[in-house]
Write a structure and sequence with these properties.
Blueprint: H1 3-21, H2 26-47, H3 52-59, E1 64-69, H4 75-86, E2 90-97, E3 105-109, E4 122-126, E5 134-137, H5 139-144, E6 152-155, E7 158-167, E8 176-179, E9 189-194, E10 209-212, H6 220-250, H7 252-260, H8 265-306, H9 317-343, H10 347-352, H11 362-380, H12 382-385, H13 388-404, H14 406-416, H15 422-433, H16 435-466, E11 478-483, H17 491-503, E12 508-515, E13 519-524, E14 527-530, E15 536-537, H18 540-545, E16 559-561, E17 572-575, E18 580-582, E19 586-588, E20 601-603, H19 605-611, E21 615-623, H20 630-642, E22 645-648, H21 656-685, H22 687-695, H23 700-733, H24 746-766, H25 773-776
Parallel strand pairs: 3-8, 5-7, 15-20, 16-19
Antiparallel strand pairs: 1-9, 1-10, 2-3, 2-9, 4-7, 5-8, 6-7, 11-21, 11-22, 12-21, 13-14, 13-17, 16-20, 17-18
Length: 781
């Protein structure tokens, strides 16, 4: 039998084998399903966290926003002239209100039926205001002023009746109170929304600003998700390849029987490829469904974190379809190499169930070295040519090239083992003997480590360059109370802070003083970048609060900070509007706090005398024993309203240091997971060898050392290879900015290069004690 009937018969046999042995392939199916589920889950999560909602929350469906002063006397004429040029124009009035917080609050006059504004306004309950004394409020405003539908609210010199609850669906932090159009007699600003191309209309002469946004198809988020998905599937594909290699070895006698019955190499390859296709389809279906259900459950969290409403079914369907297809292709490709190797095993060898000799590793190493060189050259010119495709290609080639080095490293480990004690000799030779799955495991570990190391090194360099300005402003048990018009010298303000601190059971109240118009800048290639975060004045109160000896402050220090690496930044300038200090002397004191709105960057009296400036009372930093609750924060805002002040609490953005630590931890966890699966596969395949060891008197300690050395050696090689690849890629990309690597993430690198092998060794030793009954009771053959 040949041709189509033979292929159909072989395919049916593959289906029957999968139905019989699906439990043995459960790990492979689970890994592929997890990868697909993560892509399906991450795609809408990341895309809905992008900047599109910010634009919709400001411009709505318009592409141009013009701001006019609220007292524009020519508003009617300006509107008529603009409408003659661009067509419909939506008019929104704004009047600022005090909110008791650094977050803004405004009275807004907007017509819900006007063009362009639908994405910026939605009704949650009740109705929109129509009459002269009707108003609708957002939930934040409702909570702050203790309002409800039907209550009266005296504000802006008038009393309004609350008739509804509204929101900006694309900016849920937009707190405002809505009145009917033309019911804002004294607006502080007027916004005009319309569609107009620059150069095709003339803005009003009194316009204070003109913002034009040209929406363009932006696939960056989708491309990022797809690239990360491909990388994840490549990682899983390596493990799946090891699993298919084990499956091929387990089926070797059956494959030999097929060959003895006349099956060609093509038919045998089809058996494995069909199995891979079935595994891929099952995994893609299960993973896609699980990822979609996870997205539906997580969408409310995305709304809360992204601060905008999310359409659950507005998904990048092309990306999801590509993920499902890639999962099937990954499974087929993962099965191809074991299928090719199994098809080439002679019939007699297959019937004897003897493992075939591994292919020479040098061929893979030469190809891998070439790919790495090409990839690094591509990465070196990415920034010069501004090519995204070159960046992706260079990254992919570098990673693939590093994978091709794995067989050579495993073979070298086997040769090293010839001159080591018995336990390590057996462990290293087993790795070399089962090189296909060992190389796949090493490659997977290298990918996980390379990603973790690259993120840690990159974020460390970026933290030094941007002064770690991405992160929480305050701790969750801290509240900054800032004075506004009356000043901190007002006894009423101090009494208010004392009252608030007593209510919150504060553990400390730290007065803050701040010089005006002071900035720390770094000049890089004629580009001036201001540091974010505030610069406070160094005071005896701060020194006492953080237990710092005043004598430890250097007499010539201009700035004192807790930000590691700030003192090493080149071309720093400390300046106010009139004078400046080039290359200020910066003293690092770790006892100071580290968040950007804490007193973590302080100007000394010496620098203030040099600049001829003074500091003014700015507010207080209140620390509580427990994280602040929403009720406590609202209480503080109401107190700020009564005393013409504002409060600030924490922001939820994680710092770059925290992101780097998480990346390192996830990379190590992935590597340990790969090792656990791979050691299980190798132990299953070396069953007969371990029976022989037991029969000749090997102790449980020997078996433990064998497993520990196997896991530890794989982990060390993977950590070394992954870190080297990460540094090679980053050095090529930042070849003109090598100072970025002047402060390596020492702890993260130690965790990868030392901690990962140590944990792998200890874990392998701990979990390789008593043999399972199925092994211990098996007869010697």
């Amino acid at each position: 039998m040949s041709g189509g009937p033979a292929r159909r018969a072989v395919f049916r046999w593959a289906v029957r084998m999968f139905r019989r042995e699906w439990r043995q392939q459960l790990i492979t199916i689970a890994m592929l399903a997890l990868a697909v589920g993560m892509i399906v889950f991450a795609a809408p999560t990341i895309i809905n966290s992008g900047p599109t909602a910010d634009t919709l929350g400001t411009l709505g469906t318009a592409n141009t926003l013009v701001h006019l002063p609220g007292n524009d006397k020519r508003l009617t004429a300006d509107l008529a002239g603009l409408r003659a040029q661009v067509g419909p124009v939506a008019v929104i009035g704004h009047q600022d209100l005090r909110s008791g917080s650094t977050d803004p609050l405004e009275l807004r006059a907007q017509d819900p039926a006007a063009p362009f504004g639908a994405p910026t306004l939605a009704l949650d309950s009740g109705r929109y205001p129509h009459g002269a004394n009707e108003i609708a409020v957002t939930t934040g405003t409702q909570t702050l002023f203790d309002l409800h539908q039907g209550s009266d609210w005296p504000i802006a010199g008038r009393t309004f009746r609350v008739v509804g609850i509204v929101e900006n669906p694309n900016n849920l932090q937009d707190n405002f109170a809505l009145v009917a159009p033309s019911q804002l007699p004294a607006p502080s600003e007027i916004s005009l929304l319309f569609n107009g191309e620059p150069g095709h209309f003339t803005p009003p002469a009194d316009a204070t600003s003109v913002l034009n946004y040209s929406p363009q198809p932006d696939f960056r988020a989708e491309v990022i998700v797809l690239a990360m998905g491909v990388l994840g599937l490549m990682f899983v594909g390596l493990l799946a390849s090891a699993g298919f290699a084990v499956l091929a070895q387990r089926r070797l006698r059956a494959i030999g029987m097929l060959g003895a019955l006349g099956a060609t190499e093509g038919h045998i390859r089809l058996v494995m490829l069909a199995n891979g296709a079935i595994v891929g389809v099952v995994a893609a279906t299960a993973g896609g469904l699980a990822g979609f259900l996870a997205w539906l459950g997580y969408a409310p969290v995305v709304e809360e974190l992204g601060e905008h409403r999310v359409d659950r079914l507005a998904l990048p369907w092309w990306l999801l379809a590509a993920a499902l297809l890639l999962a099937v292709l990954t499974s087929i490709v993962a099965a191809w190499w074991p299928a090719r190797s199994a098809a080439r095993v002679p019939v007699v060898t297959a019937l004897a169930n003897r493992p075939s000799e591994p292919a020479p590793a040098r061929r893979f190493a030469v190809a891998g070295a070439g790919l790495i060189v090409i990839g690094l050259v591509g990465l070196a010119f990415v920034r010069d040519l501004q090519s995204r495709s070159l960046a992706v290609g260079g990254l992919v080639l570098t990673i693939i090239g590093s994978l091709f080095l794995a067989p050579l490293l495993i073979a070298a480990l086997g040769r090293i083992g010839a001159r080591t004690p018995v336990a390590s000799r057996i462990a290293f030779r087993d790795l070399a003997r089962y090189r296909a799955r060992s190389s796949a495991a090493l490659a997977a570990i290298s990918i996980a480590v390379a990603i973790a190391a690259a993120i840690s090194v990159e974020l460390t360099g970026r933290t030094l360059n941007v002064l770690d300005d991405v992160g929480p402003s305050l701790a969750d048990n801290e509240l900054a109370y800032y004075t506004m018009a009356s000043g901190a010298h007002d006894p009423g303000q101090r009494d208010a802070v004392t009252e608030l601190a007593a209510t919150l059971h504060a553990t400390s109240v730290l007065p803050l003083t701040k010089p005006k118009d002071i900035a720390l800048q770094t000049i890089d290639a004629n580009k001036v970048t201001d540091s974010t975060g505030q610069i406070d004045a160094l005071t005896p109160d701060i020194l006492r609060r953080y237990g710092i000896d005043p004598n430890s402050i250097s007499a010539d220090a201009d700035l004192v900070t807790s930000r590691a690496g700030l003192a090493e930044l080149p071309d720093l300038v400390l300046s106010d509007r009139q004078r400046s200090i080039a290359h200020p002397v910066i003293q690092t004191i770790s006892a100071l706090p580290g968040l950007k709105n804490e007193p973590s960057l302080l100007i000394t009296p010496h620098a203030m005398r040099t600049l001829g400036i003074t500091a003014e009372a700015d507010g207080w930093l209140i620390t509580t024993p427990q994280p602040l609750t929403s009720d406590e924060i609202n209480l503080a805002r109401q107190l700020g309203l009564r005393h013409d002040s504002a409060i600030q609490t924490t922001a939820s953005a994680p710092s770059m240091t925290v992101l780097g630590n998480w990346a390192t931890g996830v990379g190590i966890a992935l590597a340990l997971g790969v090792l656990a699966m791979m050691i299980g596969m190798i132990r299953r395949e070396t069953l007969a060898d371990r029976r022989t060891l037991t029969a000749v008197g090997a102790s449980p300690g020997t078996r433990r050392r064998l497993a520990g050395l196997t896991a530890g050696s794989l982990a060390f090689l993977g950590a070394l290879t992954g870190t080297a690849v990460a540094y090679a890629g980053l050095l090529s990309y930042y070849r003109s900015e090598l100072d970025t690597f002047g402060h390596p993430p020492v702890l993260a690198l130690l965790a990868i290069l030392v901690g990962l092998p140590a944990m792998a060794t200890v874990g392998g030793w701990l979990f390789a004690g008593r043999e399972p009954d199925a092994i211990a009771r098996a007869a010697l053959t």
